Amino acid sequence: MEEYMAYVWIGVAVFMAVIEMATTQLVSVWFVIGALCAAFTSLFTDSIVNQLVVFVGVSGIALIVTRPLVKRFKKTTEKVNTNADRLIGEIGVMRSDITDPEEVGQARVLGSVWSVRTGSPPLKKGDKVRVLSIEGVKLIVEKVQ
Q1: For the chain, which has fewer Cβ within 10 Å, the N-terminal or C-terminal residue?
Q2: Beta-ladder partners of 58
Q3: Are 85 and 95 in contact (CB under 8 A)?
Q4: At residue 126, what are phi and psi to the nearest 5 degrees?
């Protein structure tokens, strides 16, 4: 079996490379490098334990060394603003009453009717409110003095 270990490690490297190509994240490129180094090691030693140590060691070192570089150059996911964000800070008019903090009412903001909640009831129909934030599809509002 020892004479075939170079082929086994190359097979592992190819398998890991296929997994890497099938994903959008870097998940197995370090194992490809480790498997290739283990295949090279198998040419000099028949000890599978030594080959495994090389595989794990090289894969770990490659991960530790390259991961910070990859994170630096990888495009980070940032908060994507939507058109609804323009509502924050805007003034609206209540279209229904809210008497309880858990109650949902309606208000017209920038010409559209929205479901609204408030942390400081009561709000009466016709009260002017300011949009503080957005939670899901509801605006969080406060009464304008």
Answers
A1: C
A2: none
A3: no
A4: 95, -15
Summarised one tens digit per residue, pLDDT across range 80-96 is 666 778 899 999 999 99
Where residue 92 falls (left for φ over 0; alpha for ψ -120 to 50; beta otherwise) is beta
In this prediction the pTM is 0.50
What is the residue whose two structure tokens read 């929205």? 114
Q: Which residues of 27-49 are buried (b: 16+ CB within 10 A; e: fewer)?
A: ebbbbbbbbbbbbebbeeeeeee
Contact of 35 with 13, CB cutoff 8 Å: yes
pLDDT exceeds 70 at position 76: no
Task: Kindly list the structural domains of the chain, giving each domain's residue range(s) and its CATH number in brackets, ordered by start.
Answer: 2-73 (no CATH), 83-143 (2.40.50.140)
